[in-house]
Amino acid sequence: MSTPNGQKVQIMLEELAEIYGTQWDTTFINIMTNDQKKEWFLRLDPNGRIPVIVDNTQDPPFTVMETSAELLYLLKFADKNDVFGFKDEFERNQALQWLFFWHGSGAPYMGQLNHFGKYSKEKIPYAIERFKNETLRVFGVLEIQLSGKFTGEPREYLAGKGKGKYSIADIGTWPWVKGWEASGLTKDDMAPFPHLLKWIDRIAERPAVKRGVGEKYATK
Q1: What residues are paired with 64 via a beta bridge?
Q2: Which of 135, 153, 210, 220 has its CA 20 to 30 A from that of 145?
Q3: Residues 1-53: pLDDT tens digits?
Q4: Within 10 Å of residue 79's Cβ, how many Cβ atoms?
Q5: Burial state string for 118-156 with b = 16 or more CB within 10 A and e = fewer than 16
């Protein structure tokens, strides 16, 4: 199953392949049958969550769990030119801020909105409303950054000087945010976020992004 969290790493790998010819093997995990809770998987990630990276170029092989850590690992060891990162320490720190913002403040709310709105057998209005409102709130935070509300300069990407540069901050955020409609949000809900919507469309046009969310990773 190609989930938003899985898509973060899938996109990063596809981007790296386009620049450097990076190669990897993919093992598909069926989370609907709880493959990620089996002992063999828990040895790789005791938290039982996908995705997991296993770097077999290391001896012994090195495993990485948690998507933000995985993106940073790939940036460190597979992106020698910082194409998707920054050499400037202040820009790098800004990218980390937005990567961690979505990891800690965005994905959990949107994940709970998906759970209570789509998958929970019992529909709890309070829970749905709370996590919808929190999802829209963090969308508003992204809109502030992209619109340049407090700087006077709209941005194309979350981190970097000027209009910003496409980086792991965007890669770590986009796979969740682009699914707003599937999460039950409406066009009226999204109307206050025009810069965010343009950002979604801008990143969606990247060839590596299309591959990272495409048929290559679809459940067979």
Answers
A1: 53
A2: 210
A3: 589 999 999 999 999 999 999 999 999 998 989 999 999 999 999 999 999 99
A4: 19
A5: eeeeeeeeebbeebbebbbebbeebbebbbeeeeeeebb
pTM score? 0.96
The 10s digit of each residue's pLDDT in 96-147 is 999 999 999 999 999 999 999 999 999 999 999 999 999 999 999 999 999 9
CB atoms within 10 A of CB 201: 10
The helices-and-strands tally (H runs, E runs) of the chain is 11, 2
Q: Which amino acid is at 210?
A: K
Residue 46 CB neighbour total at 10 angstroms: 9
Rounded Cα distance between 84 and 28, Å, is: 25
Q: Which of 42, 192, 165, 179 is nearest to 107 (CA)?
A: 179
pLDDT for 219 equals 72
State the burial class of residue 167 (Cβ atoms within 10 Å of its Cβ: 0-12, 13-18, 19+): buried
